[in-house]
Amino acid sequence: MSHHRYIGAGPPDEYVEAEIQRLLAEDPAVAEQGITVIRRERALVLHGEVESPHRREEILRRVSERFPDVPITSDIGVIRAQAPTEIEQLP
Known about the structure:
- There is one protein chain.
- By secondary structure, the protein is of the alpha+beta class.
- The protein has helices spanning 14-26, 53-66, and strands spanning 36-39, 44-50, 72-78.
- The protein contains two helices and three strands; from the N terminus they run αββαβ.
- Strand 1 (36-39) and strand 2 (44-50) form a beta hairpin.
- The protein is elongated.
């Protein structure tokens, strides 16, 4: 009986979770410490907040390029890190 399991056939392995976490932290194009990887039944969920929608797209693209067989769900929100350029005057 073979112990080899294909990624995508069942729940993702812990090592995939760790690899993605490492990619997020160490890839210079991403270097996003605030993203965590949560394992759900059939997919991995990227959870956290980034400063722009573009950044979120970039992270998802990198992860799916590196792990094409792993179902990835995004739960990444966008926060506005910089103060708005115009100060809003409250009435």
